[in-house]
Amino acid sequence: MANGYSIFVGLIIIAAMCGAAWFFAPKGENQVLWRSSLILTFISCYLMWAITFLAQLHPLIEPRRSGLRKEFVHH
């Protein structure tokens, strides 16, 4: 269900949203503030999602069962 391509699909979606934020930011003296805020928000949310997704896709620590009887433990 989950695979490595999800990271790239998410990156393409975030890039499109950043482009939309750049071009459709309200005109005026606060245009730079709007652009910066929206783009930083999109990138921060993407990074948080990507780190969490990759940590679950390839965990660093393998889970182990501890309550097994001796005859079921394989060394």
UniProtKB/TrEMBL annotation:
Membrane topology: Multi-pass membrane protein
Keywords: Hydrogen ion transport, Ion transport, Membrane, Transmembrane, Transmembrane helix, Transport
GO MF annotations in UniProt: proton-transporting ATPase activity, rotational mechanism
Subcellular location field: Endomembrane system
Parts of the chain that traverse the membrane: 7-25, 37-61
GO cellular component terms attached to this protein's record: endomembrane system; vacuolar proton-transporting V-type ATPase, V0 domain
Pfam families: ATP_synt_H
Main location: membrane
GO biological process: vacuolar acidification
Family affiliation: Belongs to the V-ATPase e1/e2 subunit family.
Protein name: ATPase, V0 complex, subunit E1/e2
Lineage: Eukaryota, Fungi, Dikarya, Ascomycota, Pezizomycotina
